[in-house]
Amino acid sequence: MALSVDSSWHRWQWRVRDGLPQSPSEATPLLSPEKGRQTYNLTQQRVVFPNNSVFHQDWENVSRRYSSNRICTTKYTLFTFLPQNLFEQFHRWANLYFLFLVILNWVPSMEVFHREITMLPLAIVLFIIMVKDGVEDLKRHRFDGKINRSKIQIYERKEQSYVQKCWKDVRVGDFIQMQCNEIIPADILLLFSSDPSGICHLETANLDGETNLKQRRVVKGFSQQEIQFEPERFHNTIVCEKPNNHLNKFKGYMEHPDQTRTGFGSESLLLRGCTIRNTEVAVGIVIYAGHETKAMLNNSGPRYKRSKIERRMNINIFFCIGLLFLMCLIGAIGHGLWNGTFREHPPFDVPDADGSFVPLALGGFYMFLTMIILLQVLIPVSLYVSIELVKLGQVWFLHNDLDLYDEETDLAIQCRALNITEDLGQIQYIFSDKTGTLTENKMVFRRCTIMGSEYSHQENAKRLETPKELDSDNEEWTQYRCLTVPARWAHGPATMRSQRGAQPLRRCHSARVPIQGHSRQRSMGRCESSLSPVAFSSSIEKDVTPDKNLLSKVQDAALWLETLSDTTPAKSSVSTTSSIADFFLALTICNSVMVSTTTEPRQRVTEPPSTKALGLSLEKIQQLFQRLKLSSLSQSFSSTAPSDADLGESLPNIPVSDSDERDDTSVCSGDYSTDGGYRSSTWDQGDILRSGSATSLEEVLEAPALGLASPELCYEAESPDEAALVHAAHAYSFTLVSRTPEQVTVRLPQGTCLTFDVLCTLGFDSIRKRMSVVVRHPLTREIVVYTKGADSVIMDLLEDPACMTDTDVEKKVRKIRARTQKHLDLYARDGLRTLCIAKKVVSEEDFRRWASIRCEAEASLDNRDELLMKVAEHLENQLTLLGATGIEDRLQEGVPDTIAALREAGIQLWVLTGDKQETAVNIAYSCRLLDQTDTVYSINTESQETCESILNCALEEVKQFHEVRKPDHKLFGFRLPSQTPPPTSGAAVPDIGLVIDGKTLNAIFQGKLEEKFLELTQYCRSVLCCRSTPLQKSMVVKLVRDKLSVMTLSIGDGANDVSMIQAADIGIGISGQEGMQAVMSSDFAISHFRHLKKLLLVHGHWCYSRLARMVVYYFYKNVCYVNLLFWYQFFCGFSGSTMIDYWQMIFFNLFFTSLPPLVFGILDKDISAETLLALPELYKRGQNSECYNMFTFWISMMDAFYQSLICFFIPYLTYKDSDIDVFTFGTPINTISLATILLHQAMEMKTWTIIHGLVLIGSFLLYFVVSLVYNAACVTCNSPTNPYWVMEGQLADPTFYLVCFLTPVVALLPRYFILSLQGTYGKSLISKAQKIDRLPMDKRDLKIQSWRSRQRPAPVPGEAQPTHHPEPPVSEQGFRASTPKSSRPSKRKYKENWVVHGERCSRDHMRDDPCSGDSSAKLSSGEHLLLGPGRTMASGVYSSGQTDAYRPSNRGSHRRSQSSLTI
Amino acid sequence: MKRTPQDCPSRLPENTAVKQQQLPACRLQLSATGILSGFFATGVFCLGMGVILILSAKSSMEIEINYTKICASCAKLRENARNFDKECTCSIPFHLTQTMRGNVYMYYKLYGFYQNLHGYLLSRSNSQLLGTDVKDVETCAPFSKSHDGTPIAPCGAIANSLFNDTIILSYKLNSSVHIQVPMLRSGITWWTDKYIKFRNPSSSNLSSAFAGTTKPPSWPKPVYELDENDPGNNGFLNDDFIVWMRTAAFPTFKKLYRRLSRTQHFIEGLPAGNYSFNVSYTGMEKLKSSL
Q1: Cα-Cα-Cα-Cα dihedral sign, residues A202, A203, A207, A211
Q2: Dist CA A715 CA A586 (whole Å)
Q3: B251 CB near a chain A CB, below 8 Å?
Q4: Which of A350, A410, A1334 sits opposite B10 (nearest CB)?
Q5: Which end of chain A is more exposed for a tag (fewer CB within 10 A), N or C?
Q6: Confidence of residue A1048 (pLDDT cuts 50, 70, 90)
């Protein structure tokens, strides 16, 4: 067999790599040659010796090299704190700048201020941050200590028993014994579990927030153990990979004393931080400890993103530096010139200490540096601190917004990045995932096709169309639940938090309180039992209304199944009845769904009932029993997994002596007792029924088909699709009762329980796009492979009908296949997710051979995944198609509305999805991303040349449109059209949508066609990228972000969106059902897509406008104040004197003018939330950076100069020639500038709340109080200059009051004038909106309506529809032939389809695995390009304007495109 | 069903005005009516204040006499450093056409004297002037100590450059009788300066209090001989000294020198007539009277 050769070659290769360097190098000193052990290369592998008597020596040698389990997440120690913290703080250039100034001030000839005083601000800032860091570090230290001191049972070699020790004492190689509900202290390889099947259940909520239980299984060969695990008898060495941060990747092998190896993977690894559940005792050996655990390695600190405003701010700070330089230069030159005017030194020119005078040039240079010190405030260093504070405030408000709170999940918005709130207001492009983001990711079984016949499930569809009722039900239920939820769930995460504390698992705050385990039972008795936080089981998903037609057939099938004997050969597989039975069995079995009961939420039903009950007729059961007994003698099946060593040969005939009873009863009857008695008698898996004591079993027995519904069973699935399928099967009474790794029990409609032995499970992965389960059919004893997967993949793996012997059968198979394909296309067009179900019967021998190969592959260390995949391929072929399912993924609430609003706000929305094109396009239509009247270009090609020419054609055509429409667009370059709203006049020209798939994207990226692609997208209303990989998603985001230099936002919910979320300027994670990876990598986490509307339009706008205006104000403030000092230099010989006391200057910045901008930045609302939501156009202000750009910056600079001139020269003229002294002159100036700056702030504030008023007035009063106290307090405080009694003196002087009144008035006059002009005659959106805001409520609504109608004078009928259409309209017939609007002759529509249609499905798959030999032929055939008719169409369309000449392209084309072509 | 909040511990944000940013607010909108009314109100107020100020300014009277050129010979004499202790006086006559009523103040005014120069400004010792420690001359560089290391009292550049012209105003009652106009040298300082900021070192004898210090290099006599007649005006408490030590904000400034003692002929102020004043030393002087 080719494969075995392959894998053995790999193995050999691997041995060569590791085994050959046998020479005992220095790297392996631990080797004692006399022991004759194999060499281990410690630089590439980790070798773990168990800490028992046998390996003690080795253990001591090796474990010393591995880090211990003591964790230390603190940054500093007691001794390194001061230097290290200072070192880190001086990484910020602002601090360095300050330090530079302080040092400068220490040079005697440049001393402006008191040396010690100059250090003060810096010291204060450093100290505050140091304290903050210190406290944080202390907290971390405390938590570390707490964690390190947690207790755990460690095996002690000397005492030969488990001893309780601290976590920190855990060493690599130690044996650890863990009890239920204990937290795992390190990464531990599971060697023993009290569970007889060797399973250990984990809750990983601490790691990834997923609340469903994960299973970990004991390393192969250790599953059959006695009651207790004996560490002393563990004689194996463990070799595995070096520590890395892949949570789900782990491989290694265990070397037995006899040199044989057992492989293991991540399924045996217990990760640090997880919690043991449902397992009484688990024992394992520590593999990674402390900081080498995967949880710790995964813990990277918070990311730092720089917001757009900050980037712009930095530029402006450079302007400020330039300004500072200029002013200093003026000062230096001025000083030189002034000095030059004296022929001899005047008495006031003070020489140096030694009596000599500084030469002119040097004096100028000194003066330059002095001026830098003097004017240092020009660089607004306090701005950084203020911005941090403002953002904290903004984040606080975001957190507290009720509208962004989701009741269902009890989650408010989470801001994970604290420093980019204002970027929310400047977004230009949104990249959205589809599944789970636009849609609910609540998979609902909609319809299915079995053996070519379609079952449309009308009632089910109807049920889904009325989601409101259900939702309201749920809502009430949730509320009720909320009340009855005992402290367990509420406090659970909290206690967890306190335990884990700062232990930086990152997850702490996102451990959610799940209240989505909706159950529709409302009785009091049940509510307790339905608290289980089971994912994917909302009522909408759970309840599937069966199709009546199918239901009867299913019952037939089930009956047939009951009577099935082992004599029925594979022939029956063609018959419809058996297929239906197989189909539903596949739905039930072929998944990884876990069953749990709701009474004890975390108690799994893992053990199949040993004696199955639910009798039909006694005779029948006995009959079955007899039959089975016979068969089990010849063929036994073990309920325990064969150990790896003997798996290969033991499969067919394991001598089972002790498992006879179990085998015998795998299908049997049990219920002989009367109805009262079953609980006590046979059904000892009572936890299923015990839980639902209220459930009457009679009901079950009486109406098995209707509601066998044992509501106590909860399904925990890894993906929602799986849950949906299981629930669907459940609706047809094929109920998954329990699942262990070895066995699956299914309850049939009649109540019989069938227990399948699971021989192998080939899990789902995104490359294979399918999963398979190999089971032994309990009735027929056949080995059956049930496969489920993407249609594109499965269709290629089906058996070749041509090989069939019987032509009838062949025809039938072909027909079924064709019809199924038709149905699949239909489903896809309806936006359903399709899955194909297939089966295959394998002969014993084939399977045995295959199992041995797989076993080998599992043991390999390198290329394990690859090998396993190849092995899987060998089994998953020649499948028989059973049918397909269509699962609906419903649109989330409010999505179309949100998209419409975002678009109105000028944001381009792209959808990047891994889904099929048809599904994606459908969702796009239903969420109004695409309009029926849009022209949609679809580009599906793989070749770069084709792609380029298509892009060229499309571009040409699109440009023609736009040139005809409005040639002026071209003047501004191509970016403009995307940002300007669609012109109202050109309603005849449709908007353009672009649909592109992953392969085309590849071609674009490889063929350097990015520019053209982007240019085309500029004209598009929306862009859809289907079938794109996570990497492509992030590439697209990066492309748009970098090439167009726009602000981008990515939103997604799944692990596949992580790269995209990280690539964008803002990443938003939706804390939905698919785990927490997206949330973990995001900057903001919301719970619904619709929250994006308020987040961007309201909070984004506010945050942006607040912060932007605050930044501008800060620049203004500093320049204005510093210039006062600068003007004074003209009157003091440019000597660097200040007329204001230094303390008062510090206070001025520190206390008197710092709070109002903060309040302004946190609280000001330029426009109310209602208006912002009603008029999304207002968002464009942020997009165009209207609040803070070069213009506003320079305007405010000019204003600052003007105001400082006024503030200085009015007092100057007042006090000129008088006997005023320096500080008495400074006081009115200080007061005036304070008044001016505060009043300026007051004019900038658009809303005045009581806080604003208090802060402003408070600041002003504080100034007087502080000045009075300071000026009266001490005589020699700020020696040698001191302002003793100056303020008091001034307050007694009427001139002071006059000056203080007149100057601010004059200073603020221009701004006042302009602002009031704007307020009166302003034509900008903002000022209009502000005017609207001032109107009373009712008038405001009217005004907004009239505004909106003005914006769009001729609304397209399509757009005038109410935007609340959460669901695509589903017609009764299932599919619409064509959309009504498309048939309107008035609309010119163009539909081009460049669909290069190769063998799409096969290519998809082959491309992923290009090295597989047998697929290469297909691959090359796939390259064959079939260029659709669209290319020739492109030119023709435009000239003639009629498109009916062109036929719909082909299968892959979209229904709307077809309909449109018939105009 | 009873609903109590503690039953439902959740992350539901509180619905308070502050947290939901719904505080009652008034929107500030600058509109034409608002601005015009505000503008005119301010304008009227400013106009009124202006009128009052102009009227009050009109009622005060000021005479400025520049004696630098007239006493040029003295200036020349002073240029030679060796002549610094030579007396040089010059007399300048002027005519007052109108009686200066009320309090009359005599100022001296210096042009282009940068008392606000940074280095100059700092060169003083407040603690020395406060009398706590006469020898505290740390901040006085370069005028902290004399060549032999004795601390200077009062130290520093400001003190060193003390304005020490003596101006005596005399009134020509008629062509022959010249009466010296009685001038008060008290009450020309800030009260806080005279009584809080400046204190002589406590000692029985002023000269002993300043023992161990020397006079500033430019001074003709030590600080305890500034006014030997009036102990309240001697040493650091000398009014002229205190006034000088309050450094002026601009290079052109005036400082209060004397105020009229309203006795005898001068009860109503300075009567009209011919005056002359004698200046010893150089500098610029200006006479000003105001109500």
Answers
A1: positive
A2: 16
A3: yes
A4: A410
A5: N
A6: very high
Q: How many Cβ atoms from other residues are within 10 Å of residue B199's Cβ?
A: 16
**H/E run at residue A901:** helix A895-904
- The whole-number mean pLDDT for each consecutive block of 10 residues of chain B, a chain of 291 residues, reads 44 81 77 80 89 86 80 67 64 85 86 87 86 84 84 88 84 84 88 88 84 85 85 88 91 89 85 84 48 37
How far are the Cα atoms of A1212, B50, B100 from residue B53, in angstroms, in the given order?
Answer: 17, 5, 20
Using left for φ > 0, alpha for ψ between -120 and 50, and beta otherwise, residue A143 falls in: alpha
**Side chain identity, residue A532:** S
**B-chain residues near A1215 (CB < 8 A):** 249-250
Comparing A798-802, A898-902, A1447-1451, B99-103, the range with the smallest average pLDDT is A1447-1451
List, in sequence order, the alpha helices (H) in chain B: 32-59, 72-79, 118-122, 126-129, 157-160, 191-192, 206-209, 239-245
Helices A1101-1129 and A1155-1163 meet at what angle, rounded to 10? 160
Three-state DSSP at A288 gives: strand
Q: In this complex, do A1135 and B30 lie within 8 Å of one another by their Cβ atoms?
A: no
Q: What is the mean pLDDT of residues A1187-1200?
A: 92
Six token digits for residue A1251:
């806080």
Residue A1458: is its pLDDT beyond 80? Answer: no
Distance, CA of A92 to CA of A4 (rounded, Å)? 60
Categorize the per-residue pLDDT at A828 as very low, low, confident or very high, splitting at 50, 70 and 90. Answer: confident
The tokens for A680 are 């006590």
Residue at token pair 């995001």: A1082
Nearest residue on chain B to A370, judged by CA atoms?
B118
* C-alpha pair distances (Å), A490 with each of A115, A419, A872: 56, 30, 43
Residues in chain B: 291
CB contact at 8 A, A844 and A793: no
Q: How many CB pairs under 8 A join A and B?
A: 222
Is the pTM of the predicted complex or chain greater than 0.90?
A: no
B69 CB within 8 Å of a chain A CB: no
- Judging contacts by C-beta atoms under 8 Å, the chain A residues touching residue B124 are 1280
Contacts of A195 (CB under 8 A, 6+ apart): A278, A279, A280, A606
Beta-bridge partner residues of B91: B278
- Report the pLDDT value the prediction gives residue B10, as an integer from 0 to 100: 64
Handedness of CA B53, B57, B60, B64 (dihedral sign): positive
Which tokens in the block code for residue A263? Answer: 């492989």
DSSP A917-957: HHHHHHHHHHTTSS-TTSEEEEEE---HHHHHHHHHHHHHH
Q: How far is CA B217 from CA A641, A861, B121, B145, B227, in A?
A: 108, 93, 18, 10, 19
Whether B248 and A1319 lie within 8 Å, measured CB to CB? no
Say which of B9, B13, B160 has its CB closest to residue A412: B13
Q: Is B141 on the interface with A (CB under 8 A)?
A: yes
Ordered DSSP codes for B9-25: ---PPP--TTTTT----
Tell me the chain B residues in contact with residue A497 when contact means C-beta distances shorter than 8 Å: none
Cα–Cα distance measured from residue A1453 to residue A1447, given in angstroms and rounded to the nearest whole number: 11
DSSP designation for A798: B
Asked if A1302 lies within 8 A of B197 by C-beta distance, the reply is: no
Question: CB-CB: which of B14, B49, B117 is closest to A1298?
Answer: B49
Residue A614 has a pLDDT of 38
Instruction: Give the Cα separation of A1266 and A1289 in Å (integer).
Output: 15
- The full DSSP string for A1048-1112 is EEEEE-SGGGHHHHHHSSEEEEE-SSS-SHHHHH-SEEES-TTHHHIIIIIIIHHHHHHHHHHHH
- Chain centre distance of CA A407: 20
Active-site amino acid positions of A: 433
